[in-house]
Amino acid sequence: MINFNETDKLELKEKYTDLLVKEIVAFLNTEGGAIIIGINKNKEVVGINTDIDKIQRKISDIITDQISPRCVEFVYSHKETLNNKDIIQIDVKKGNKLYYIKKYGLSENGCYVRIGSTSKSLTPDEIMRRFEANLLEPSMKETTSRKQRLTFDILKGSLREHGLHINDDSFFDNYNFLTKNNEYNLIADLFADKNDISMKISRFEGIDKSKLVETTEYGYKSIILSIRRMLDRFEALNITKSIIKVPQRIDKKLFNMEALREAFINAIAHTKWTEFNSPQIQIFKNRIEIISTGRTINELTKQDFFKGVSKLRNPELMRILRELEFVEHTGFGVPTIVKYYGKEAFEFLDNFVKVTIPFDDEVIESVLDVPHDVPHDVPHDV
To answer: I want to staple 90 with a disulfide (CB 3.0 to 4.6 A). Which of 13, 35, 174, 296 is the partner?
Structure first.
């Protein structure tokens, strides 16, 4: 007899059934938990006697195709051995949206929560309240960091370099690094000396994604270092070509660094970090593309956007970037990009904003051999 008790965080199943999707949705909509297949209600380990790989494929199908919105980053299934018998454990984290079974939609048959040791369907009124609450974007301040043992030596050193006094007693409150439950939040995670956030630059050989040449990692450390090293990479790429036009010589850059810097820092400041995605930086033969997750903030029209009207998605993050002088004036970035490359530099997709910085046609030929000489991770002392 195994000492397993079904609770609000644990569900035991003797075998796989199609009702498993309901339990996963319930955990996603509550506080997360674990589902173990191969243990019966009497807490006996019976194991899985059928094709375990087939069951894992069915679970994968549930996670990827039967639940909406997308939940793959919150659900993980794995095979374990207990008492010499195979079992499957499904770990479910609390999601950040209202999840439901696709074929039933936002209905009593589609939406579930975990109450005690059972999964209960939500009433239409409860569904409406939860749906309306989820229309509001979760804030970085109230999104708990996945790590709680964090240090901030790099940030503190950088702030001191800019003449700012550090009060250790009020440091976390001053920079909004704690949730209401006094846990480190996503803002703290970004600026911690080490984190789980990937920051990459991908380079492609031609003008499309048919051949990836390299992907260089700049993340997993304080975002301060990531930003500095990626800006160094852009500077190194931005070669100059001298064009002789009698009676003068004109030095032309591959691209306008001011516009690229603004596009990059804007992506850092306005991306939807609560979905644990970082901006995508892609270098092609003829351009650089910077893609940030999240549409322009609700209520902000494209007309206001291009005028530089600022409606901050992450005000606490922007404040620190400003103190470190990565950002000078809120709302300055978009007009700068439009000044050099026009409104057509921006593309608004369903859940992304893409900025394209084209290369100068007369300089492109000089770029062909540059990436071989460009340092991929230029050291930058704090």
So the answer is: 35
Q: Which of 73, 62, 65 is nearest to 97 (CA)?
A: 73
AA letter at 188 = A
Q: Can you tell me whether residue 64 is helix, strand or coil?
A: helix
Per-residue pLDDT of 28-38, as tens digits, reads 999 899 999 99
Q: CB pairs under 8 A, 24+ apart, for 365-369?
A: 366/239, 366/241, 366/254, 367/237, 367/239, 367/254, 367/285, 368/285
3-class SS at 52? helix
Asked whether the predicted pLDDT for residue 310 surpasses 80, the reply is: no
CB 79 within 8 A of CB 37: no
- Show the tokens assigned to 258: 């001011």
Nearest C-alpha neighbor of 326 from the set 255, 239, 193, 231: 231
What CA–CA distance (Å, rounded) separates 259 from 357? 8
Structure token digits, residue 297: 């903030």
Vertex 349: Cα angle to 69 and 353 (nearest 5): 105
More confident residue, 380 or 174: 174
- For residue 292, CA distances in Å to 140, 187, 296, 345 come to 16, 17, 10, 14
10 Å CB burial of residue 1 (0-12, 13-18, 19+) is exposed
CA quadruple 187, 193, 195, 197: dihedral sign:
positive
Q: How many helices (H) and strands (E) does the chain have?
A: 12, 16
Q: Residue 132 burial (CB < 10 Å; 0-12/13-18/19+)?
A: exposed
Burial environment of residue 116 by CB neighbours within 10 A (0 to 12, 13 to 18, 19 or more): exposed
Structure tokens at 8: 């609000």
Tens-place pLDDT, residues 228-259: 999 999 999 999 888 776 677 778 899 999 99
Tokens of 220: 């997993």
Q: Are 93 and 32 in contact (CB under 8 A)?
A: yes
**If DSSP codes are grouped into helix, strand and coil, which group holds residue 106?**
coil
Contact 335, 345 (CB under 8 A): no
**Can you give the three-state secondary structure of 284-352, one letter per residue?**
CCCEEEEEEECCCCCCCCHHHHHHCCCCCCCHHHHHHHHHCCCCCCCCCHHHHHHHHHCHHHEEECCCE
23-38 in b/e burial notation, b at 16+ Cβ within 10 A?
Answer: bbbbbbbbebbebbbb
